[in-house]
Amino acid sequence: MPETLQFVMKAITWLALFTAGVAALSASAFAAVPEGWSTDLNKAFAKAKAENKSVLVEFTGSDWCPPCIAMRKEVFSKKEFVAAASKKFILVELDFPKGDKELAEKNQPLAEQYKIEGFPTVILFNPEGKEFTRFFASKFPKIEDFLKHLDEVLARKDLD
């Protein structure tokens, strides 16, 4: 009997830790769009033309997609990332939250237009709105890796 009780107590402890972790991730998902990000793609393209920058668009499910939640927490909401990426990109977040059906429906035509097949997808556009690459953001879960990838993609884009 003591072994069974010990197993049950470990299982309860693990479950409590797991639940607390999920709650912490979820809480940050309901935060407003990170500072430095836009939610209007048309305005972003106009600003990109005016500033001669590319556009980085993240398609996300901020309240239900674990990789999206992790990317926002570890990369996209960090001042270091926003400051560095904003030098070359206008940043746009297009969210498809389950908790805000109106926002998800508003953004749905863009998901269809750009044929989004999974989240978190990042598409990079030139200032004229022409896509030059796309990738899953979660491939680069650290700020340094994400910024390095952006620099590499921009260098290749200029060679094309």
Structure description:
- There is one protein chain.
- The chain is α+β, with helices and mostly antiparallel strands.
- The protein starts with a helix and ends with a helix.
- The chain has 6 helices and 4 strands.
- It is globular and about 65 Å long.
- Strands 2-1-3-4 form a 4-stranded mixed sheet.
Key structural traits:
alpha+beta; 160 residues; single chain; Glutaredoxin; 4-stranded mixed sheet; 2 domains; globular
Q: What layout of secondary structure does this protein have?
A:
Elements: H1 2-29, H2 41-51, E1 54-60, H3 66-76, H4 79-85, E2 89-95, H5 101-113, E3 121-125, E4 131-136, H6 143-159
Parallel strand pairs: 1-2
Antiparallel strand pairs: 1-3, 3-4
Helix pairs in contact: 1-3, 4-6
Could you tell me how far the N terminus lies from the C terminus, measured between alpha carbons in angstroms?
Answer: 69 Å
Strands ordered across the widest β-sheet: 2-1-3-4
**What's the number of helices?**
6
Provide the residue-averaged pLDDT.
87
| Coarse morphology | globular
Overall CATH architecture of the largest domain? 3-Layer(aba) Sandwich
Order of helices and strands: HHEHHEHEEH
Helical amount: 40-55%
CATH topology name of the largest domain, in short, is Glutaredoxin
Tally of discrete structural domains: 2
Radius of gyration: 19 Å
Main pleated-sheet profile: 4 strands, mixed
Low-confidence residue ranges:
13-30
Q: Class of the largest domain, according to the CATH hierarchy?
A: Alpha Beta
Q: Based on DSSP secondary structure assignment, what is the total number of beta strands?
A: 4
The CATH homologous superfamily of the largest domain is termed Glutaredoxin
Helical/strand content category: alpha+beta
